[in-house]
Design goal:
Blueprint lengths: L1 E7 L2 E6 L11 E10 L1 H7 L14 E9 L11 E4 L9 H4 L33 E4 L2 H4 L1 E2 L9 H4 L5 H11 L7 E5 L3 H12 L4 E6 L2 H9 L3 E4 L5 H10 L2 H4 L12 E6 L19 H9 E9 L13 H4 L7 H7 L2 E4 L8 H9 L11 E3 L4 H9 L8 E3 L9
Parallel strand pairs: 8-9, 8-11, 9-10, 11-12, 12-13, 14-15
Antiparallel strand pairs: 1-2, 3-4, 3-6, 3-15, 4-5, 5-7
Helix pairs in contact: 5-6, 8-10
The chain binds nicotinamide-adenine-dinucleotide and zinc ion (ZN) (2 copies).
Length: about 400
Amino acid sequence: MRAVVYKAPCKVTVEQVEDPRIEQPGDAIIKISTSAICGSDLHMYEGRTAAEPGTVFGHENMGVVEEVGPGTTSIKVGDRVVLPFNIACGFCYNCLRGYPNACLTVNPAAPHAAYGYAQMGPFRGGQADYLRVPYADYNCLKLPGRPGDQWEDDFITLADIWPTGHHGVVLAGVTTGSTVGIFGAGPVGLMAALSAVMMGAAEVYVIDRVPERLQAAVKLGATPINFADGDPVEQIKEMRSSNAALQGRLRPGEEKMSGADHGIDAVGYQARDDDQDEDQENPTQILENLVRLVNPTGKLGIVGVYMAKDPKGVDAEAKVGHLTLPWAEIFEKGLQIGMGQAPVKNYNEFLRDMIIAGRAKPSQIISHRLPLESAPDAYRAFDQRGGEYTKILLKPDLPASAA
Ligand SMILES: NC(=O)c1ccc[n+]([C@@H]2O[C@H](COP(=O)([O-])OP(=O)(O)OC[C@H]3O[C@@H](n4cnc5c(N)ncnc54)[C@H](O)[C@@H]3O)[C@@H](O)[C@H]2O)c1
Ligand SMILES: [Zn+2]
Ligand SMILES: [Zn+2]
Protein backbone atom coordinates (compact mmCIF):
# COMPACT_ATOMS: atom_id res chain seq x y z
CA MET A 1 0.00 0.00 0.00
CA ARG A 2 0.99 3.67 -0.27
CA ALA A 3 2.00 5.59 2.86
CA VAL A 4 3.50 8.96 3.86
CA VAL A 5 6.96 8.19 5.25
CA TYR A 6 9.20 10.52 7.25
CA LYS A 7 12.72 10.50 5.79
CA ALA A 8 14.59 13.40 7.42
CA PRO A 9 13.82 16.88 8.79
CA CYS A 10 11.51 18.65 6.32
CA LYS A 11 11.31 15.60 4.06
CA VAL A 12 8.46 13.13 3.66
CA THR A 13 7.80 10.86 0.69
CA VAL A 14 4.91 8.71 -0.48
CA GLU A 15 6.17 5.14 -0.73
CA GLN A 16 5.00 1.58 -1.06
CA VAL A 17 5.12 -0.16 2.34
CA GLU A 18 3.90 -3.56 3.47
CA ASP A 19 0.13 -3.83 3.97
CA PRO A 20 -0.95 -3.95 7.61
CA ARG A 21 -2.38 -7.27 8.78
CA ILE A 22 -4.33 -8.58 11.76
CA GLU A 23 -1.73 -9.22 14.47
CA GLN A 24 -3.94 -9.64 17.55
CA PRO A 25 -7.47 -11.07 17.85
CA GLY A 26 -8.89 -7.65 18.76
CA ASP A 27 -7.39 -5.83 15.74
CA ALA A 28 -9.21 -4.34 12.79
CA ILE A 29 -7.86 -3.13 9.46
CA ILE A 30 -9.39 0.13 8.25
CA LYS A 31 -9.48 1.32 4.66
CA ILE A 32 -8.71 5.00 5.08
CA SER A 33 -11.13 7.49 3.54
CA THR A 34 -9.60 10.59 5.19
CA SER A 35 -6.41 11.18 7.19
CA ALA A 36 -5.51 14.69 8.31
CA ILE A 37 -2.18 16.46 8.68
CA CYS A 38 -1.84 17.96 12.16
CA GLY A 39 0.22 20.72 13.75
CA SER A 40 1.63 17.90 15.89
CA ASP A 41 2.97 16.25 12.72
CA LEU A 42 4.89 19.43 11.99
CA HIS A 43 6.94 19.05 15.20
CA MET A 44 8.14 15.69 13.80
CA TYR A 45 8.41 16.98 10.23
CA GLU A 46 10.75 19.78 11.34
CA GLY A 47 13.01 17.36 13.24
CA ARG A 48 11.85 18.73 16.60
CA THR A 49 11.13 15.31 18.15
CA ALA A 50 12.71 11.89 18.49
CA ALA A 51 10.82 10.63 15.40
CA GLU A 52 12.83 8.00 13.51
CA PRO A 53 13.21 8.09 9.73
CA GLY A 54 10.85 5.47 8.32
CA THR A 55 7.93 6.49 10.57
CA VAL A 56 4.60 6.37 8.71
CA PHE A 57 2.79 9.55 9.76
CA GLY A 58 -0.92 10.03 10.41
CA HIS A 59 -2.74 9.99 13.76
CA GLU A 60 -6.03 11.55 12.58
CA ASN A 61 -7.77 8.73 10.78
CA MET A 62 -11.15 7.54 9.60
CA GLY A 63 -12.49 5.06 7.09
CA VAL A 64 -14.30 1.78 6.68
CA VAL A 65 -13.55 -1.52 8.42
CA GLU A 66 -11.97 -3.87 5.89
CA GLU A 67 -11.14 -6.85 8.11
CA VAL A 68 -11.53 -7.77 11.79
CA GLY A 69 -9.67 -10.18 14.06
CA PRO A 70 -11.56 -13.13 15.63
CA GLY A 71 -11.71 -11.35 19.01
CA THR A 72 -13.70 -8.31 17.91
CA THR A 73 -17.37 -8.32 18.85
CA SER A 74 -18.96 -4.93 18.25
CA ILE A 75 -17.16 -3.82 15.07
CA LYS A 76 -17.77 -5.54 11.76
CA VAL A 77 -16.57 -5.34 8.17
CA GLY A 78 -18.18 -2.38 6.40
CA ASP A 79 -18.61 -0.22 9.52
CA ARG A 80 -17.66 3.43 9.08
CA VAL A 81 -15.43 4.53 11.94
CA VAL A 82 -13.18 7.33 13.21
CA LEU A 83 -10.25 6.57 15.53
CA PRO A 84 -9.03 8.65 18.47
CA PHE A 85 -5.39 9.56 17.87
CA ASN A 86 -4.54 7.93 21.22
CA ILE A 87 -4.63 4.14 21.15
CA ALA A 88 -5.91 2.57 24.35
CA CYS A 89 -6.86 -0.86 25.67
CA GLY A 90 -10.02 0.04 27.59
CA PHE A 91 -9.27 -2.31 30.52
CA CYS A 92 -6.17 -0.98 32.31
CA TYR A 93 -6.13 1.06 35.52
CA ASN A 94 -6.00 4.38 33.66
CA CYS A 95 -8.44 3.52 30.86
CA LEU A 96 -11.00 2.37 33.42
CA ARG A 97 -10.66 5.63 35.35
CA GLY A 98 -11.36 7.65 32.20
CA TYR A 99 -7.79 8.38 31.11
CA PRO A 100 -7.41 6.64 27.74
CA ASN A 101 -4.70 9.21 27.00
CA ALA A 102 -2.52 7.40 29.56
CA CYS A 103 -3.20 3.77 28.66
CA LEU A 104 -0.78 1.48 30.50
CA THR A 105 -0.79 -1.59 28.29
CA VAL A 106 -0.72 -0.66 24.62
CA ASN A 107 2.77 0.86 24.42
CA PRO A 108 5.43 -1.15 26.28
CA ALA A 109 7.73 1.90 26.49
CA ALA A 110 5.45 4.62 27.89
CA PRO A 111 2.05 5.28 29.49
CA HIS A 112 0.44 6.44 26.24
CA ALA A 113 0.22 5.42 22.60
CA ALA A 114 -0.75 6.88 19.23
CA TYR A 115 -0.62 6.10 15.53
CA GLY A 116 2.47 7.27 13.68
CA TYR A 117 3.96 9.42 16.42
CA ALA A 118 7.39 9.80 18.03
CA GLN A 119 7.72 7.99 21.36
CA MET A 120 4.12 6.82 21.24
CA GLY A 121 4.77 3.18 20.43
CA PRO A 122 5.38 1.01 17.37
CA PHE A 123 2.14 1.87 15.57
CA ARG A 124 2.05 3.01 11.97
CA GLY A 125 0.08 6.07 11.00
CA GLY A 126 -2.91 6.30 8.67
CA GLN A 127 -1.65 8.73 6.02
CA ALA A 128 -1.80 5.60 3.90
CA ASP A 129 -4.29 3.30 2.20
CA TYR A 130 -4.85 1.11 5.27
CA LEU A 131 -4.39 1.25 9.04
CA ARG A 132 -4.16 -1.44 11.72
CA VAL A 133 -6.28 -0.55 14.76
CA PRO A 134 -5.52 -2.44 18.01
CA TYR A 135 -8.40 -3.13 20.44
CA ALA A 136 -10.86 -2.18 17.71
CA ASP A 137 -13.96 -2.65 19.88
CA TYR A 138 -12.71 0.07 22.22
CA ASN A 139 -11.00 2.43 19.79
CA CYS A 140 -13.44 2.57 16.86
CA LEU A 141 -16.17 5.18 17.10
CA LYS A 142 -19.01 4.17 14.81
CA LEU A 143 -20.35 6.73 12.38
CA PRO A 144 -23.51 6.96 10.31
CA GLY A 145 -23.46 7.63 6.57
CA ARG A 146 -20.83 6.64 4.05
CA PRO A 147 -17.40 7.91 2.92
CA GLY A 148 -17.47 11.17 1.05
CA ASP A 149 -20.87 12.25 2.37
CA GLN A 150 -21.73 15.65 3.88
CA TRP A 151 -20.27 14.66 7.26
CA GLU A 152 -16.93 13.19 6.13
CA ASP A 153 -14.88 16.31 6.79
CA ASP A 154 -16.70 17.02 10.07
CA PHE A 155 -16.19 13.52 11.42
CA ILE A 156 -12.42 13.57 10.76
CA THR A 157 -12.10 16.41 13.29
CA LEU A 158 -13.21 13.87 15.94
CA ALA A 159 -9.88 12.03 15.67
CA ASP A 160 -7.98 14.84 17.36
CA ILE A 161 -8.47 18.55 16.79
CA TRP A 162 -12.00 19.00 18.07
CA PRO A 163 -11.73 16.74 21.15
CA THR A 164 -8.34 18.36 21.85
CA GLY A 165 -9.67 21.90 21.56
CA HIS A 166 -12.65 20.81 23.64
CA HIS A 167 -10.33 19.32 26.27
CA GLY A 168 -8.53 22.66 26.56
CA VAL A 169 -11.91 24.29 27.20
CA VAL A 170 -12.84 21.64 29.79
CA LEU A 171 -9.46 21.91 31.57
CA ALA A 172 -9.85 25.68 31.68
CA GLY A 173 -13.28 25.26 33.32
CA VAL A 174 -15.19 27.22 30.67
CA THR A 175 -18.93 27.41 31.23
CA THR A 176 -21.92 29.67 30.52
CA GLY A 177 -20.89 33.33 30.68
CA SER A 178 -17.13 32.66 30.83
CA THR A 179 -14.42 35.00 29.56
CA VAL A 180 -11.81 32.98 27.66
CA GLY A 181 -8.44 33.72 26.03
CA ILE A 182 -7.25 31.16 23.48
CA PHE A 183 -3.65 31.40 22.24
CA GLY A 184 -3.29 29.98 18.72
CA ALA A 185 -5.76 30.02 15.82
CA GLY A 186 -4.45 26.83 14.28
CA PRO A 187 -6.93 23.98 13.96
CA VAL A 188 -6.75 23.18 17.69
CA GLY A 189 -7.25 26.79 18.82
CA LEU A 190 -10.14 27.20 16.37
CA MET A 191 -11.80 24.04 17.68
CA ALA A 192 -11.33 25.35 21.23
CA ALA A 193 -13.12 28.52 20.12
CA LEU A 194 -15.94 26.41 18.62
CA SER A 195 -16.35 24.53 21.91
CA ALA A 196 -16.09 27.64 24.10
CA VAL A 197 -18.83 29.35 22.09
CA MET A 198 -20.90 26.16 22.07
CA MET A 199 -20.58 25.89 25.85
CA GLY A 200 -21.95 29.39 26.28
CA ALA A 201 -18.85 31.51 26.94
CA ALA A 202 -19.67 35.21 26.91
CA GLU A 203 -16.32 36.53 25.61
CA VAL A 204 -13.88 34.45 23.57
CA TYR A 205 -10.59 36.07 22.48
CA VAL A 206 -8.38 34.19 20.00
CA ILE A 207 -4.76 35.28 19.60
CA ASP A 208 -2.59 34.62 16.51
CA ARG A 209 -0.90 36.67 13.79
CA VAL A 210 -2.20 34.92 10.66
CA PRO A 211 -5.09 37.04 9.33
CA GLU A 212 -6.90 34.14 7.62
CA ARG A 213 -6.80 32.07 10.80
CA LEU A 214 -8.06 35.01 12.86
CA GLN A 215 -10.87 35.47 10.33
CA ALA A 216 -11.81 31.81 10.82
CA ALA A 217 -12.00 32.53 14.57
CA VAL A 218 -14.36 35.45 13.89
CA LYS A 219 -16.64 33.14 11.88
CA LEU A 220 -16.81 30.89 14.93
CA GLY A 221 -17.98 33.81 17.08
CA ALA A 222 -14.65 34.84 18.67
CA THR A 223 -12.90 38.21 18.94
CA PRO A 224 -9.57 38.20 17.03
CA ILE A 225 -6.37 39.55 18.63
CA ASN A 226 -3.34 39.94 16.34
CA PHE A 227 -0.14 39.73 18.38
CA ALA A 228 1.71 41.49 15.54
CA ASP A 229 -0.22 44.64 16.60
CA GLY A 230 1.24 44.66 20.13
CA ASP A 231 1.23 42.76 23.41
CA PRO A 232 -1.84 40.50 23.12
CA VAL A 233 -2.45 40.45 26.89
CA GLU A 234 -2.52 44.26 27.03
CA GLN A 235 -4.76 44.33 23.94
CA ILE A 236 -7.35 42.11 25.64
CA LYS A 237 -7.17 43.96 28.98
CA GLU A 238 -7.46 47.28 27.19
CA MET A 239 -10.40 46.07 25.10
CA ARG A 240 -12.18 44.86 28.22
CA SER A 241 -11.47 47.89 30.35
CA SER A 242 -12.43 50.37 27.63
CA ASN A 243 -15.76 48.60 27.05
CA ALA A 244 -18.22 50.93 28.78
CA ALA A 245 -20.86 48.21 29.12
CA LEU A 246 -18.44 46.03 31.04
CA GLN A 247 -17.37 48.90 33.35
CA GLY A 248 -20.96 49.71 34.28
CA ARG A 249 -21.44 46.37 35.98
CA LEU A 250 -18.27 46.31 38.13
CA ARG A 251 -18.32 45.84 41.91
CA PRO A 252 -15.57 47.46 44.02
CA GLY A 253 -12.17 46.00 43.16
CA GLU A 254 -13.45 44.08 40.15
CA GLU A 255 -11.31 46.15 37.80
CA LYS A 256 -8.47 43.89 38.94
CA MET A 257 -10.19 41.14 36.95
CA SER A 258 -9.73 42.82 33.56
CA GLY A 259 -8.04 39.72 32.14
CA ALA A 260 -9.80 36.44 31.36
CA ASP A 261 -10.92 33.86 33.93
CA HIS A 262 -10.03 31.00 31.57
CA GLY A 263 -6.95 30.64 29.36
CA ILE A 264 -6.02 28.04 26.75
CA ASP A 265 -2.64 27.25 25.20
CA ALA A 266 -3.21 25.90 21.68
CA VAL A 267 0.32 26.70 20.47
CA GLY A 268 2.91 24.87 22.59
CA TYR A 269 6.71 24.95 22.67
CA GLN A 270 7.17 26.22 19.11
CA ALA A 271 5.50 29.55 19.97
CA ARG A 272 6.81 32.66 18.29
CA ASP A 273 8.28 35.37 20.44
CA ASP A 274 5.63 38.06 20.41
CA ASP A 275 7.55 40.99 21.90
CA GLN A 276 11.17 40.72 20.70
CA ASP A 277 11.30 39.04 17.32
CA GLU A 278 8.31 37.28 15.82
CA ASP A 279 10.56 35.12 13.67
CA GLN A 280 12.25 33.64 16.74
CA GLU A 281 10.77 30.95 18.92
CA ASN A 282 10.16 31.43 22.61
CA PRO A 283 9.04 28.12 24.14
CA THR A 284 7.54 29.79 27.22
CA GLN A 285 5.84 32.68 25.40
CA ILE A 286 2.33 31.28 25.69
CA LEU A 287 2.73 30.13 29.30
CA GLU A 288 4.04 33.56 30.33
CA ASN A 289 1.20 35.28 28.48
CA LEU A 290 -1.41 33.02 30.04
CA VAL A 291 -0.14 33.76 33.54
CA ARG A 292 -0.38 37.49 32.83
CA LEU A 293 -3.77 37.26 31.12
CA VAL A 294 -5.65 34.95 33.45
CA ASN A 295 -7.25 36.58 36.49
CA PRO A 296 -6.58 35.50 40.09
CA THR A 297 -8.29 32.11 40.78
CA GLY A 298 -8.49 31.43 37.03
CA LYS A 299 -7.87 28.18 35.20
CA LEU A 300 -5.44 27.25 32.44
CA GLY A 301 -5.95 24.48 29.89
CA ILE A 302 -2.65 23.65 28.17
CA VAL A 303 -3.11 21.42 25.13
CA GLY A 304 -0.27 22.90 23.05
CA VAL A 305 2.54 20.33 23.10
CA TYR A 306 5.76 20.53 25.16
CA MET A 307 8.39 17.96 24.11
CA ALA A 308 10.83 16.19 26.41
CA LYS A 309 13.20 15.70 23.47
CA ASP A 310 13.66 18.67 21.17
CA PRO A 311 16.91 18.35 19.20
CA LYS A 312 16.58 21.94 17.97
CA GLY A 313 15.52 23.56 21.27
CA VAL A 314 16.62 27.18 21.81
CA ASP A 315 19.16 26.16 24.51
CA ALA A 316 20.44 23.09 26.37
CA GLU A 317 17.57 23.21 28.88
CA ALA A 318 14.91 23.60 26.18
CA LYS A 319 16.37 20.60 24.33
CA VAL A 320 15.20 18.42 27.24
CA GLY A 321 11.99 20.31 27.91
CA HIS A 322 13.18 22.21 31.01
CA LEU A 323 11.49 25.59 30.84
CA THR A 324 11.45 28.42 33.35
CA LEU A 325 8.02 29.63 34.45
CA PRO A 326 6.78 32.47 36.68
CA TRP A 327 5.80 30.07 39.47
CA ALA A 328 5.50 32.79 42.11
CA GLU A 329 2.89 34.65 40.09
CA ILE A 330 1.05 31.40 39.39
CA PHE A 331 1.03 30.76 43.16
CA GLU A 332 0.05 34.31 44.09
CA LYS A 333 -2.84 34.24 41.65
CA GLY A 334 -3.86 30.77 42.79
CA LEU A 335 -4.15 29.57 39.21
CA GLN A 336 -5.17 26.01 38.44
CA ILE A 337 -3.34 24.32 35.59
CA GLY A 338 -4.46 21.33 33.56
CA MET A 339 -2.40 19.98 30.69
CA GLY A 340 -1.47 17.04 28.52
CA GLN A 341 -2.71 14.82 25.77
CA ALA A 342 -6.45 14.95 25.23
CA PRO A 343 -8.51 11.90 26.28
CA VAL A 344 -10.25 11.92 22.89
CA LYS A 345 -12.44 8.94 23.76
CA ASN A 346 -14.11 10.89 26.58
CA TYR A 347 -15.54 13.43 24.16
CA ASN A 348 -15.68 12.09 20.60
CA GLU A 349 -19.06 10.37 20.90
CA PHE A 350 -20.80 13.47 22.21
CA LEU A 351 -19.13 15.80 19.74
CA ARG A 352 -20.11 13.38 16.93
CA ASP A 353 -23.72 13.75 18.00
CA MET A 354 -23.46 17.55 17.85
CA ILE A 355 -22.40 17.14 14.21
CA ILE A 356 -25.22 14.71 13.42
CA ALA A 357 -27.77 17.00 15.09
CA GLY A 358 -26.55 19.87 12.91
CA ARG A 359 -25.44 21.96 15.90
CA ALA A 360 -21.78 22.15 14.89
CA LYS A 361 -19.94 22.21 11.58
CA PRO A 362 -16.23 21.86 12.49
CA SER A 363 -15.33 21.21 8.82
CA GLN A 364 -15.74 24.94 8.20
CA ILE A 365 -12.05 25.37 9.08
CA ILE A 366 -10.77 22.84 6.53
CA SER A 367 -8.89 24.47 3.69
CA HIS A 368 -7.51 21.60 1.55
CA ARG A 369 -8.61 18.15 0.46
CA LEU A 370 -5.74 16.47 -1.38
CA PRO A 371 -4.67 13.08 -2.76
CA LEU A 372 -2.03 11.11 -0.82
CA GLU A 373 0.57 11.90 -3.48
CA SER A 374 0.36 15.59 -2.54
CA ALA A 375 1.66 14.94 0.97
CA PRO A 376 5.24 16.22 0.40
CA ASP A 377 3.96 19.55 -1.00
CA ALA A 378 1.18 19.74 1.57
CA TYR A 379 3.59 19.31 4.48
CA ARG A 380 5.89 21.98 3.05
CA ALA A 381 3.01 24.43 2.65
CA PHE A 382 1.31 23.72 6.00
CA ASP A 383 4.67 24.06 7.75
CA GLN A 384 4.77 27.73 6.71
CA ARG A 385 1.61 28.23 8.82
CA GLY A 386 0.70 30.76 6.19
CA GLY A 387 -2.68 32.14 5.36
CA GLU A 388 -4.05 29.71 2.86
CA TYR A 389 -3.44 26.41 4.65
CA THR A 390 -5.59 26.06 7.77
CA LYS A 391 -6.17 22.31 7.82
CA ILE A 392 -5.26 19.71 5.21
CA LEU A 393 -7.04 16.41 4.63
CA LEU A 394 -5.45 13.59 2.64
CA LYS A 395 -7.88 11.41 0.69
CA PRO A 396 -6.31 8.19 -0.62
CA ASP A 397 -9.17 7.68 -3.06
CA LEU A 398 -8.56 10.96 -4.88
CA PRO A 399 -6.50 10.46 -8.06
CA ALA A 400 -2.99 11.97 -7.96
CA SER A 401 -4.11 14.31 -10.73
CA ALA A 402 -6.58 15.96 -8.29
CA ALA A 403 -3.70 17.78 -6.52
N1 LIG B 1 -2.69 17.87 23.76
C1 LIG B 1 -3.01 17.16 22.69
O1 LIG B 1 -3.56 16.06 22.81
C2 LIG B 1 -2.77 17.73 21.33
C3 LIG B 1 -3.42 17.20 20.21
C4 LIG B 1 -3.24 17.82 18.96
C5 LIG B 1 -2.40 18.89 18.84
N2 LIG B 1 -1.75 19.37 19.94
C6 LIG B 1 -0.85 20.52 19.87
O2 LIG B 1 -1.62 21.70 19.82
C7 LIG B 1 -0.83 22.74 19.22
C8 LIG B 1 -1.63 23.39 18.12
O3 LIG B 1 -1.92 22.47 17.09
P1 LIG B 1 -2.40 23.00 15.66
O4 LIG B 1 -2.66 21.81 14.81
O5 LIG B 1 -3.47 24.01 15.83
O6 LIG B 1 -1.02 23.68 15.19
P2 LIG B 1 -0.59 24.88 14.22
O7 LIG B 1 0.88 24.86 14.21
O8 LIG B 1 -1.34 24.79 12.93
O9 LIG B 1 -1.11 26.20 14.96
C9 LIG B 1 -0.38 26.91 15.89
C10 LIG B 1 -0.76 28.38 15.75
O10 LIG B 1 -0.11 29.12 16.79
C11 LIG B 1 0.21 30.38 16.29
N3 LIG B 1 1.22 31.02 17.14
C12 LIG B 1 2.58 30.90 17.12
N4 LIG B 1 3.13 31.66 18.09
C13 LIG B 1 2.10 32.29 18.72
C14 LIG B 1 2.04 33.23 19.78
N5 LIG B 1 3.16 33.69 20.39
N6 LIG B 1 0.83 33.67 20.18
C15 LIG B 1 -0.31 33.23 19.57
N7 LIG B 1 -0.32 32.35 18.54
C16 LIG B 1 0.89 31.89 18.13
C17 LIG B 1 0.69 30.10 14.86
O11 LIG B 1 0.64 31.24 14.05
C18 LIG B 1 -0.31 29.01 14.43
O12 LIG B 1 -1.43 29.56 13.75
C19 LIG B 1 0.44 22.05 18.74
O13 LIG B 1 1.46 22.19 19.71
C20 LIG B 1 0.03 20.60 18.65
O14 LIG B 1 1.13 19.71 18.74
C21 LIG B 1 -1.92 18.80 21.17
ZN1 LIG C 1 -3.38 15.71 15.47
ZN1 LIG D 1 -5.51 1.04 28.86
